[in-house]
Design a protein that fits this description.
The structure holds two protein chains of two kinds. Chain A is built from 15 helices and eleven strands. Chain A is α/β, with parallel strands linked by helices. The two termini of chain A are about 25 Å apart. The chains are: A alpha/beta, B mainly alpha. Chain A: Heterotrimer of A, B and C subunits.
């Protein structure tokens, strides 16, 4: 029998419907892979094996009866940012270690409604703050890929590092993830997987542990563009429980994958050429332009003049919102509470000092600083004004182009520990992805090639608000032209 | 507007994060590095630009002011560090 864990999500769902194999069989196959790989890769923080088998058997019963949803019986991994009823949700933090939500996030509820099976909860940077998964209280995740010139363990990227690593290492068919400044697309690029952040408001934020509410958005990490489309369609919905949720229908995006891109105008922003960009990234980008040209697209040079201000804007807006969102962790109603404290203030301060890791504390202090009297206008309000400038840059180019092509990241995956010493170096990883969050636009990363060391690299397609259809269409064309980037060799 | 150790102490207190004295100087250094980098935003002409507080082009939805959920005391208390008799138990806060 073929190895069921190698299937795409689409092939697995089709095979389950055709009763070529059962959900219990494929679920057990993934649990076996997880058992072997997780001690090394650390992608899962909790494996819910019993629950997975129960859900798989229930799916098999529905499939036997000729019923079932669009994801019926498909085993998925869930980023530990999504609250799952009765299953620990810690968001990579000691502050929430042991927290068991009595409710289900809307995104995961949608997946269970469509028949998906949960394998467990996936590791992530603490409260989604990081670009290498090294800030997790549960330890770093290891990238299943290795450079062919070194044996060093590499980061899968962050904050959805567990999701990306699990998908790349065949530890689930696909996974949920979340993206505040690039946390879906950057790890997807580092692991040779596909990751999309939809338009802000498409996916409900209800039951997602909040980091920066005006930027956070859920999305999938999957093996193919079609799989990503399938999963995203299931994840998105209008949700009255999220005031920023858009009351609009969710299209079936898998119908867009494979459609001809002939006649589409693809923008290439001159500002995305950055200093010190490796040749491999330059070449990848040029290849992407050639492939789309060959497929009948017109490549249009465009300018997004405020691009260079996106990261500094992000590093004001995101910490400011985080300092507000994370104020709820006061040790009173849930989360870690310090013992033996002298006063109420001491209790708050000690609980938060003990519960949060260093990167979270650093961002909360920056957030408090930029919101504090005297600096509010100079930093925070100015950043919100620059944010509008960045969004207006995009508004201006949509007359000229249908989508935008850029690299996903400024480099391939780097070694664990490489950039931990310098927060600024780490922040620069999100240089190509963060603009889409600030403007609320959909963006996808597609594996498009490898560098000289054999490590995967991604291309990003950014689309108009609510135009995921074109994003998937272009991503599908890139995927087809790029061919397979290969799979990581099993060294674990 | 360089940050010194005293400023870090004040802001850490505002953020309610206990910060030991020997962390104040290193944190000041890190924050100054980040803020110096952020200072490039002062180059941008933002004259007459409205701050962007949301990227959703819709008016905020309001719902009727009615109870839609509730009666979940056990759920609400389920993750409390301490609780008793349907209440959160907190350390004595009256001095």
């Amino acid at each position: 029998m073929t190895d069921l864990t190698q299937l795409t999500l689409k092939a697995a769902v089709d095979g389950l419907k055709a009763k070529a194999f059962s959900s219990e069989e494929i679920t057990r196959a993934f649990l076996t892979n997880i058992e072997a790989a997780n001690p090394v890769l650390n992608a899962y923080v909790e494996v819910t094996a019993d629950k997975a088998i129960d859900m798989a058997r229930a799916s098999d019963a529905r499939l036997q009866a000729g019923q079932g949803g669009v994801l019926e019986g498909a085993p998925l991994g869930i980023k530990d940012l999504f609250c799952t009823e009765g299953v620990q949700t810690a968001a990579g933090s000691n502050m929430l270690r042991g927290f068991v939500p009595p409710y289900e996030s809307t995104v995961t509820a949608n997946l269970w409604r469509d028949g998906a099976v949960m394998l467990g909860k996936l590791n992530m940077d603490e409260f989604a703050m990081g670009s290498s998964n090294e800030t997790s209280a549960f330890g770093p995740v290891v990238n299943p890929w290795k450079s062919n010139s070194s044996n060093a363990e590499l980061t899968p990227g962050g904050s959805s590092g567990g999701s990306a690593s699990a998908v790349a290492a065949d530890l689930c068919l696909a996974a949920t993830a979340s993206d505040t400044g690039g946390s879906i697309r950057q790890p997807a690029a580092f692991t040779g997987t596909v990751g999309i952040k939809p338009t802000y408001g498409r996916a409900s934020r209800y039951g997602m542990v909040a980091f920066a509410s005006s930027l956070d958005q859920a999305g999938p990490i999957a093996r193919t563009v079609e799989d990503a489309a399938l999963l995203l369609t299931s994840m998105c919905s209008f949700d009255p429980k999220d005031s920023t949720s858009l009351d609009i229908p969710t299209p079936d995006w898998s119908a867009s994958v494979g459609r001809s891109v002939k006649g589409l105008r693809i923008g290439v922003p001159s500002e995305y050429v950055v200093d010190g960009m490796p040749d491999a990234i330059q070449k990848l980008w040029a290849d992407g332009m050639d492939w789309l040209k060959d497929a009948g697209c017109e490549i249009v040079p465009i300018s997004l003049p405020h691009t260079k201000y996106a990261l500094p804007t992000y590093y004001i807006v995101a910490p400011a919102e985080a300092s507000s969102n994370l104020a709820r962790y006061d040790g009173m109603r849930f989360g870690h509470r310090a013992e033996g404290t002298a006063s109420l203030t001491d209790l708050y301060e000690s609980s938060r000092a003990e519960g949060f890791g260093n990167e979270v504390k650093r961002r909360l202090i920056i957030g408090a600083y930029v919101l504090s009297a005297g600096f509010y206008d100079a930093y925070y309000v100015r950043a919100l004004k620059v944010r509008r400038r960045i969004a207006e840059d995009f508004d201006r180019v949509w007359d000229q182009v249908d989508a935008i092509l850029t690299p996903s990241t400024p480099s391939a995956a780097f070694a664990l520990g490489d950039k931990q010493i310098d927060p600024l170096q780490m922040y620069l990883n999100d240089i190509f992805t963060v603009t889409a969050n600030l403007a609320g636009l959909p963006g996808i990363s597609v594996p498009a090639g490898v560098d000289a060391n054999g490590l995967p690299l991604g291309l990003q397609v950014i689309g108009k608000a609510l135009d995921e259809a074109t994003v998937f269409q272009v991503a599908g064309a890139l995927e087809k032209a790029a061919g397979a980037v290969g799979r990581p060799e099993r060294w674990w | 507007m360089a940050i010194d150790a005293a400023t870090v102490r004040k802001v850490a207190h505002l953020a309610r994060i206990k910060t030991p004295d020997d962390r104040l100087e290193p944190l000041a250094g890190e924050l100054n590095g980040i803020l110096a980098w952020i200072d490039q935003l002062s180059e941008v002409d933002v004259e007459g630009v409205e701050p962007m507080t949301s990227n959703v082009a819709q008016v905020l939805r309001l719902r009727d002011d009615v109870v839609t959920d509730g009666g979940k005391v056990a759920d609400v208390l389920a993750n409390a560090p301490r609780s008793a008799d349907g209440f959160f138990v907190v350390p004595k806060v009256v001095e």
